[in-house]
Structure formats: C-alpha cells, structure tokens
Amino acid sequence: MITGDFIQLENEFGANNYKPLDVVLSRGQGIWVWDVEGNRYLDCLSSYSAINQGHCHPKILEAMNDQAKKLTLVSRAFRNNQLGPFYKEICELTQSHSVLPMNSGAEAVETAIKAIRKWGYMEKGVPAGKAEIIVCDNNFHGRTLTIVGFSSEAQYKEGYAPFTPGFISIPFGNTTALENAITPNTVGFLVEPIQGEGGVIVPPDGYLKSVRKICDRNNVMLILDEIQTGLGRTGKLFAEEHDDIQSDLTLVGKALSGGFYPISAVLSNKEVLGVFKPGDHGSTFGGNPLGCAVARAALRVLIEENMIKSAATLGEYFMKQLKEINSPHVKEVRGKGLLIGIELNHTAGGARRFCEALQAEGILCKETHQHVIRLAPPLIIQRENIDWVLEKIARVLNSKAKH
Ligand SMILES: *Cc1c(COP(=O)(O)O)cnc(C)c1O
What we know:
The chain is an alpha/beta fold and 403 residues long. It is 37% helix and 17% strand.
C-alpha cells in the first residue's frame, strides 16, 4: 500500500476530527521519522512535546519490553512493585511531596480540578458548591467536557453545551486581571507557563513570580499545567524554574513516557492531594506497572543524557538564528528552550502552506492557530541538525511569495 491507500482507509472508516498533513509515517528513530514510501523527515513537532527523548529511545524501549514480559496491569485493587519506586523517583527529581498518576494529560487536569475544589471545601472553608477556579483566555488544557467548557476557542466548545460551571477566564500574562478576579471563593489559578497550543505565547518576564505572590496572599492554589512545557522542553526541568517559583500542583504528561505510553501525573503539595480518601478518585490504568516502568526510564534518560541542558543551549542558538532570517512574512520569533513559535504576518496566507512546503523539504512541523509555525524538535537534536533545519526554513520563508 502507498500513502494514498492509507489515507483512503482513514477517510473511509475514521471520524473526521483531525486534518493531519498527508504523510503516513511507519518508523521513527531519534529525531527522524520515515514515511511508508521510505522518505525521511526531521520531526520538529515531537508529538506536541511527548517525544522530548526522541523516537523509540532504546533505553525506554528496553524498560518497556522488560516490563511488558513481567506484568502490565493489576488495577489499583492491588499494589505493584513499579509504583512505589516511580513515586519516589519522580518526587525526588521534581521536589514534590506527593504524586497521583493518571493516563492522559486531560485526566491530570481533571484530577487537579477535583483536588483543589475539594481542598477549597475542606480546608479553605468555601461554601458548598461555590468554588471558583480562574483560568486564562487562549488556554489549552485538553478536550474533556469540563476542560473545553472553559476554553476560549469557539471550535473546541461548539455543539457541546451545557458545560461545568465554576470557571472564570482572564487575559494571560496579566497580573492585575488575576488580582481583580479573585474572590473569597477562589480555590485555584490554572495556567500554562507558556501557552503552547495557543501559539507559543510567552508571558511577560516575572509573570509567574507575581502570580505566585498573588496566590499566596489570597490562599489560592497555583496549578501549573506543564504537560507541554515540562520535562526539559523549555531548557529547565519545569518552566516554573525560569521564574524561580514552585507551584502548588504541577501537571505532567506527554514526555513523561517519552512517547511510548499515555501516562500523566499530578505532582506535589501534600495538603491538596491529601484531601483524597480511598474511593474519591481513580483510574483503571493509572499507575500501572508498565506505565510506571516506562516513566521511570523516560525520566532517567532525560537527566542522564543531559537533554535539559542541551534544550537550553541549542534552543537559544536556534531562536537567535531564526531571528536572523530576514523574511517579509515573519512577524515575530519567540519561545523558550526548544519550544519556539514563528508568527507570520497575516499577509503570508497562513502557516499551513509553509508547513506543507517544509514537509517537501524533509521537515515535519505543524501550524498552531492560523499564523504560527511551532518548532519543537526532540531535545536530543544536535547543532548540525539545527543548521540543516535553519537552511530549509530560510529557503521556505523566503521563496513562498504572497498569493
Ligand atoms: C497536550 C496538552 C494537554 C492534554 O493532554 P492530552 O494527553 O492530549 O489529554 C493539556 N495541557 C497542555 C498544556 C497540553 O499541551
């Protein structure tokens, strides 16, 4: 079968809720992926940062294979010998007090919402049913009904009402708006350190530092969604470290498994996670031995192979070089570490066609919102690979004239 045959199968039998680039991939290794016709591409999306460690990392693969032969799932009705060691290792690495494992990122977000609401009623004394959570305009926290209910993206919500009440949305990067939105019933502020899906939006310097202070003053829990920014992507283990703060709850997912397996977690704060009693919350697959073994290996290689440091230095280099590309289409280059967005002028005709042109050059990336090309290669990328990408990006940005 060739590319068109696979696409036809998807179109014939699949729900039509995605519009991927027409490339059918069948193999990946490190920063590279290959399509069914044998063409090679450099992956500059990393599955939205789930592949920070590179495709099919041999050590994670080995951990997965070993564990898959021994024990994969017992449910939380019983204990397993991967869970405790995973807890200890992730808590020590992230300086967390406590952890709750789930599967998808959205489930980690839902878990945090449940936890801080319950904390609000049990500890803060918020009247029953009145808890308020503040979120930001242009957020992305996943696709469950509760989560899309507080999205500002019309398409994410259209046709899905009614939604869960109790959320208030304010402009991202604006601390005055946060202060003004807080009431005695506010239990938490849920925010991404950098809005990834929202177009790689970097808040003003010191934003999280001020946010931390405002939350402290008002006894409001700060929940950082680091599902995309965490685990090395921005050149630190967590993006919060750029502002030298600690959240009350941190959400991780995506790269927690290096792309092998859906595993997510809510980290930290004994006080908040301590509100859960047996039976309050759960997941059949959450904390399963296979997932834990994979996550342990995925975290280990991130540190052992210096991926975080490399994301910092190479990210800085990549961004500096991108800023030097002199194209009339480019409005702004921004980001942190290896999470970079190139925002195009509206006259450029949208980012999609540039992504298609890059595909033809052997680079896979995806537009986010209409006018932003997001670049987020695996953190194991080398300088010479970046130079190779830069040359092609420069060519594409300069050759594609306005329609
Ligand atoms: C991807 C993402 C999620 C949702 O994760 P899923 O695994 O797709 O449910 C939540 N928050 C952020 C910031 C993300 O990037």
